[in-house]
Specification:
Distance between the termini: 35 Å
Number of helices: 12
Radius of gyration: 23 Å
Helix content: over 70%
Order of helices and strands: HHHHHHHHHHHH
Structural class: mainly alpha
Shape: globular
Largest sheet: none
Length: about 280
Amino acid sequence: MNGTPATKPPFLERFLAFRNKGDEAKPFLSHIEDLRLTIIKIAIALIVGMFLCFAFRDHLAALIQRPLVDLDPDRAANLQSLGVADSFTISLELAFYGGIVLSFPLIVVFIAEFILPALNPREKAMILPVALIGSGLFLGGAAFSYFVVLPQTLDFFFNDARAMNWQPTWTVREYYSFTTQFIIAFGLAFELPLAVLMLLKLGFVDHVRLRKTRAFAVVVIFIFAAIITPTSDIVTLVLMGGPMCLLYEICIGIAWFMRDKTSPQETVGDPPATHQE
């Protein structure tokens, strides 16, 4: 209104300043263009992964159904298809989640390239190993859910319905939607160290801040676990929250190890220092 340029939110200002570090300052629209290209690359990687998964949809469906078959083959045989196009729409849903898993390393690389463009050559060489570590964490969380938590969760729901004198008859749509989202949620939850590493590099957290907020983080972790785990039993909650608390402690160790690699100016919570650049 008065000709004064609109100020950007502090987080956005800090993020854009980090992206400009080491280079000439880019206009805001240039950052938006970089974001658009990143989204396009992620979408292409995801679509390719979806096509590959759709080509093997019968094997993928059998894999997702395996925990139920192992618990009780009769339960798996009683899954009902109530929609005419269920075989196709559910295959698309499975292909989408499978595509996320297959393309996850590339997605991490593309996001890192967008968030961290001002890395030196040595740091850029670390993007691929970090992407592989992130994929390993994701697959580790998904595998932990698939082999440990999911069977207990399915058994809990089945027996809980029986306790209510109901005959649990699940549809294929409900079963596959529940299991795939459950597994993906665990995989994403195990990305906590990678997220902290990004925040550490951006200068938003340090090992001191992480230690001071440990008690608050544990509460948030278990609230998050209670939200994404649909069961109300304490065992499932602990199986979800326990590993995340352990990962949080690992994050503190990572932040402590990298403390000397973060300049004093970028350390959150320290008194502001005078820049000499």
